[in-house]
Amino acid sequence: MSKxxxxxxxxxxxxxxxxxxxxxFAEDLEWSLATVPRLSKLCLETIVRNxxxxxxxxxxxxxxxxxxxxxxxxxxPLHVTASLISDERYWKRCCxxxxxxxxxxxxxxxxKRMFLERHLENIIELFVPDVTDPKTVLDLxxxxxxxxxxxxxxxxxxxxKEPQQAEExxxxxSASDSGSDRPSMDHFDFGILLDKLTSLEELHxxxxxxxxxxxxxxxxxxxxxxxxxxxxxxLMSCKTLKVLRLQQSKVEDEKCRMLVRHLLDHPSLRELxxxxxxxxxxxxRAVSKLLNRSKLETLNIYDNDIRGPGAQAIxxxxxxxxxxxxxxxxxxxxxxxxxxxxxKALRWNHTLxxxxxxxxxxxxxxxxxxxxxxxxxxxxxxxxxxCNRLGEDGGKLLEDGMSHNISxxxxxxxxxxxxxxxxxxxxxxxxxxxxxxHERRAPENGAG
Length: 448
Known about the structure:
17 helices; 9 strands; 9-stranded parallel sheet
């Protein structure tokens, strides 16, 4: 550097050192450059605010995607989120906001499945015939059909009935009998839905109205023939269905026969529950045909009106059946005629594991037949005979039969009047069978 140039630079530096330094103070004393949001963060917040109009999430890097999903509103429309968001944390927030408590164990531990199933259930339970647009249900199908495996419908509403004078109601009744002014459906029509739910495995239905209050009418608690017909066709079209439960809906013989007729040869049905209904002998005969033409593993028809002839039909099918594992007939009226028929069937059946015959007006003759069956049958694991008047003589017969049994690990004979001696003896046999079963399984568990 030349001498003159060096002198000039030195003068400039000296002049700068003598000048006063100017400082700028922010109006916000807490302001700091560190608090200025990064441009990337501002962009992500914009995505969150405008997600409904411009949903962007899958193209984001993992960290940024998590940031967006954590801040998305759980109230966003399903047509935006259902097909786009799979993150379980988002669906957990959606579930927690609407329902509490939430238990995902019944939904394959999937929050998204829980939300979509329960949302569809709520739509159906609040569906009012001829008022609610069926599109509100059908529009959900493309969004949830791959997730909905079970529907648990605990209420089905009737069409709205406008207040009328007594004279007008009489006229309306006569008109409805002739077919005019009749609603298009009595309850939600499952015929428009079931064939579209391609993953549905379980359907639980109760035709009733919850919290009806002073508006109570008996017709609020029954499935009509028209409902039954549409449901029957819908069940036949649902090829993936494994479990059907139709309870507390006043299903009597004619409706039972209609439903069963459409379930014959169903490819996947494994459990049928018609409990708490009005099924009698004719309905039981229809069910017996289903046992011959299906692969049912569980049959629950307890708390109905099945008597001897109906039980005989079921027993005849049971003696030939090779798939049924559990049969529950409690709280019917089988009597000794039906009880003896079931007992005889046990001699020929080699697959049934669980049998419930409690509260069926059975007495000593049934105990005699069951005793012989239990002495020969070494497949049955549990049997419930509670609340039948078997008597002390019946207890002795059962005691003798059970002394030859090596498979029963649970035998309920409460309130059967069999006597203390027979009760103790049978309990000892059951305990020995349990110990034997435990010893048999011990090596298997160790190997596992």
